[in-house]
Model the fold of this input.
Amino acid sequence: MQLSIGCFSVIVMIFSFCMSTAKSLSTIRSPVLRVIKPHSISIALKMYSSSSSQNQFKLSKRTLQTLDPCVILMKQIISQHEEKWKEDGIFSLAQGVVHWKPPRNVYEVLANAAQENLDESVAATAVGDGALIHTYCPDEGYPPLLASLKVKLEQENGLISPHVMVTSGANQAFVNCIITLMDEVDGHNHEKESQQEMISKCVVFEPYYFNHVMAIQSVRGGNDCGGIASPEESAEGLLVGPTQYGVPDLSWLRSRLEQYKKISGNRIRIVTLVNPGNPTGKSLSHSFLKELAQLTKEYGVWLVVDNTYEHFDIHRNNQDPAHPNIPYPCIDEEHVINIFSFSKGYAMAGFRTGYLAFSSKNGSEGKGTLAYEQMLKIQDTIAICTSRISQMAALGALKAGREWVNDQVRTLEVGRNAILDALGSLEEIIGGDGAMYIMGKLPNSTDDKVSE
Done:
């Protein structure tokens, strides 16, 4: 997938595919990477604007100005050029989907739940969880899953007694955060600011996860992508910051936190980080995470960390020397909200199950507790609860354990090395040590083909 990041043209490649595909890639002596540019669809992320002639039956301006999801665009492109994938041996590396299936425990849970309802001799008197799959759960989640997640979060992430909320995927978790934590316009105007100056902001770092930007745009506005690729880095609720080789620029962030600091509070409400990075494929160090957490705490700003790819920290960059036995340590601070997902490591993307972890420090007066309690309103409005059967399946997946996921992630090594070899002649490569993504800077003269 080719994207424009600043003045560079880059190709984003995903190395999550089966062994046979990886071996095929690794045998290419002079790799050819094609970027197909169809006439009818632009690969560049696009936004629509409403026609001035449309005076009736209007659609939301924010929705119209929200990015189109690039994965859908790529699927349309691939379908238009399907013959090239078959005839020329070109592999589609356009979406971050793992090649393995969920653990066997997941299917056993589903089978048992179905049987409880299919077997008439059991269904009439059944009172177990399987007999309740058609019913609502509590808003925050299926109680047995919540209990297991709290154990997992403490043992594997170093989060002590967190509040947990299960969502319909990590994307819904992020939308919950945007709605709960951001205001359209801050009503406390002590400095006679303009309405534009009073809009609360959410920071993302470029190159960003497109669904995060879409959430901000659709909920809090943003008629431009912002960032170093655009004339203005800030557009309504969206503020886009730069990275250096996939690492967010904290000097830039400090300057903006200072710039938006007001008597009534910082206009920047949220700083968002994806680690390991999507689409950078960069895994950040734990010391960097602590520095970012301290910086946001200093300025009274929420830090939302998307840990969807926690199992893909290939070289354990995110390791805390003080707690070496914690596989993937997260920051346990009141102002930090951590997002997790079952979609990648456990291969449960279609089950749409993610979760949020909030700090419980300082009890009922703690910032994490207050955010959790208020977010339940949003949870009840959007989803009420995540599907009970999906949550039961997620509980089954957890029983397989982290080592089961680690075994699956190790199978990506062949594909990762093949892609790194194929991109070896490029001037600059980012990633390969986190998530399942690698970014390479294409030559300035790139048209539709790059070769050694």
The radius of gyration is 23 Å. The chain is about 35% helix and 15% strand.
